[in-house]
Write the structure tokens for this entry.
Amino acid sequence: MRYPILKIYTEKIVENGQILIKECAKNGISLWAVTKGMSAHPEIALAFKKAGFQILADSRISNIVKMKEAGIQGEYALIRIPMPSEIEDTVMLCDYSLVSELDSVLEMSRICDKLKKNHKIVIMIDMGDLREGFWPTELESSYEKLKNISPYLHIAGVGANFACASGALPRRDNLASLLGYYKELENKLNCHFELVSGGGTCTLVQMIRGNIPEGINSLRLGESILLGTDSSENFPFTMLSQDTMEIVAELCEVRVKPTLPIGEIGMDFSGNVPIFLDRGNRLRGVLAIGKQDIRIEGLVPLDEGVEIITASSDHLLVDLEDCPKKYKAGDTLRFRPDYPAMLSASTSSYVQKIFC
Ligand SMILES: *Cc1c(COP(=O)(O)O)cnc(C)c1O
């Protein structure tokens, strides 16, 4: 066994996916399953397919290529608006993409014509999170150009993103505005579009609260499937499993030490001057995992009595004084990762991934 390990309980993720597909269908909502939180690991993509998701979505073309090369069938969506330099790859390798630059759409249109390849776009509208999206007032001037795009380039609908860059939450009013822009686009282009993509896990929370206007018919879910959590409002999804993953790290020192550092205190590894409370001598453990493996702030200890003290690039220090179990070097401790911790563990080559 090579530690640290990210253990993934695939069946629990499959179950989360199945529950979400069913619950959302009751509300007339279809789903894209977002793989980027786990770097599109093929085992995750397979779990999503097993749950019944038809469309896999990722922010990176390289991740989409990885899933395709692993032989995972289905439709793929690129959910980071494409860089102008990757527009040809987007058309060639993805079935859907989210777009917010008119020039990118026109370039896609030219490429679709050239390759005679079909591609579907979701026009993103910025509803206040200030990340990607057309600004609502500039839509008007885009309608004429959107009318004349290639017959191979299909407008699938409109979408918005919430609670990512600025924390702006989806609410009944801004989702209703999104629907308004959708209807306006349909009228101006005299066409019917299939999708109103209302956001990610944060919008699922609104759906469960019964607070989503009728007409929002698609969501793009990552966190709720993978971890059964919502980091926008910490909404408790009682129907989902939260114990889908854990981090396992090995203790390489266990010793009683003072809780107050000795000598003059300068800056720690991160450039902060740390402040410690004097709790006398206590049992402390050194785990072989650090800030270059994972985002430590996102770890919650799963073993009784364990408390995180601090971490440097390669070491995580824990207080073990109150643990009922007597730990020694060579024992392992378990932690639950939040979304950013999962993300950092999944991209780190130092963290071994074990699917069970
Ligand atoms: C990451 C992402 C999602 C998924 O969000 P979750 O909160 O993980 O459900 C949805 N849409 C876009 C555009 C994203 O970048």
